[in-house]
Amino acid sequence: MPKKDSVRQMFDSIAPDYDRLNHILSLSVDKGWRRRALRRIVDTAGPLTVLDLACGTGDFSLAIARRLVRRGVDGQVTGLDLSEGMLAVMREKVAAAQLSDRICILQGDGEELPFPDASFDRVTIAFGIRNFEHRDTGLREALRVLRPGGRLVILELSVPAFAPIRWLYKLYFLHFLPWIGGRVSGDKAAYNYLPASVLHFPGRKAFTAELLSAGFSQVSHRAFSLGICRMYCAAK
User: How many other CB atoms are there within 10 angstroms of residue 74's CB atom?
Assistant: First the structure.
C-alpha cells in the first residue's frame, strides 16, 4: 500500500483520541511551539491568506485564526488534510470556536494542491511534513501556491543532538509513547509509526538543503526545547 493511503487510514483510525493523546504525550509543550511560530505567520497588519497543510484536527489553523482576530487582521485560513476522520474533528472544533467565517476546511492531497499559482501569503505545516510520501513534491507545491514574497513556516519534531537528552528522548518516544498511545487509542501500530517517522526525518542541514532544492530562499531554522522541535522558515 502506498504510504499516502496507509497514512490516511492510520489517522482516520486514531482521530477520535488524537487531540487528547497528543497533549498528554507532549505534556502540552507543543502549544508553546505553535505560539512561537505564529509570530512568523501573522506578522503584518495587512490582509493575510494562510494555507495550513496537513492541518489534522485543526489546532494550528485555529491558533492562526484566533491571532488574526486578536490583532484585527483581515484574513482567511484554509486547512487541508488527507484524513477525513481528522477533518471531522476539526469541523466540530471550528464550529465550537465560532470561527467558520475565518477557516475553510478541505480534504485533499498536499502533493496535488487544488489552488492556482500564487494563492496564499503564508503556507504552514505543523508536525505533518514527515508524513508526506513525496516530500520534494509537497514542498514544490507549497512554493507554487505562495505569492512572491510569501513565507513557508514548518514546525516538526526532531531528535535532540545532546547525547543524554537524546537517550531519554528515544526511551520515551520508542517505548512509553507507543505503549500509552496503543492502550488509549487501541492502535499501537499508529503510535509505533509516529516516533519512527520522527527518527527517519532528515536533520537540520539535510532538510534545509531540501527547501533550497525545492526553490525556496532565505531559509532559517530555530530549535526549541533542546532540539525536540524545530522551526523552519523560508521565502519565495
Answer: 11
